[in-house]
């Protein structure tokens, strides 16, 4: 474990030397820890959770007026200290590529276009209420070639090709069309349509929209999925809303999954964030899952997030 830490530290600090040669390097991260009361069907228990805390470096290096290198190396760090041996640091998005008038091309490990297409609609991403709790498609894949086109009238095309990496495996493709700005700073509406073909054994179609209505930000998502053999069909939808009042942001989200085999699942989450500064917030949320034939789940948490 000490060796793994030393490798990451060495990589981060050695990157600083790149700044001497006109490269733009940023070391960044997020520490997110919560005290949580969890009930997953066999009684409640308390835990300290590290909610996708991370550290990484990213940057660009202009080769000339028309071509720029893009790179990122990001690692998830479990700050609660209870990870299995050797799993306290794991890989997140890690890639290198080129950007220019043609768009950008990246090679490495990256979120698929379908995963990226959710934008900021999932208000409880990285927590128990993350949409991946009920749906497939939130994939970060190794061995990928990703392409994003330039934007034309707020429209952008994205394609992820996932190499099979084995003789008996199959290639996967994830395609998305994006409209607007996911942060809703450059446009008042964000929308996307995405499709996965043979990605981790599933074919998935997802449509997403989010927009501002006065001071309220509303979002919605629909998804259909099935295994590549045609089984495990599911139709689902999710709606979310948030409202900011001074330093407090109130949030709510509902997600449903209707499986053709008859197993219906749903989850509702209510929460609030309190901003101490641009970098730091306190938060609390309550999540309840109705899992039909499986055990119901409930989570109550309060925590702190610090970004640097």
Produce the secondary structure layout.
Layout: H1 2-15, E1 23-39, E2 44-50, E3 54-62, E4 67-77, E5 89-100, E6 103-111, H2 113-116, E7 140-148, E8 155-162, E9 172-179, E10 189-199, E11 202-213, E12 216-227, E13 234-245, E14 248-259, E15 264-275, E16 280-290, E17 297-307
Antiparallel strand pairs: 1-2, 1-3, 1-17, 3-4, 4-5, 5-6, 6-7, 7-8, 8-9, 9-10, 10-11, 11-12, 12-13, 13-14, 14-15, 15-16, 16-17
Subunit structure: Homotrimer.
Organism: Colwellia chukchiensis
Signal peptide: 1-22
Summarize the structure.
The protein has 308 residues and is mostly beta strands. It has helices spanning 2-15, 113-116; strands at 23-39, 44-50, 54-62, 67-77, 89-100, 103-111, 140-148, 155-162, 172-179, 189-199, 202-213, 216-227, 234-245, 248-259, 264-275, 280-290, 297-307.
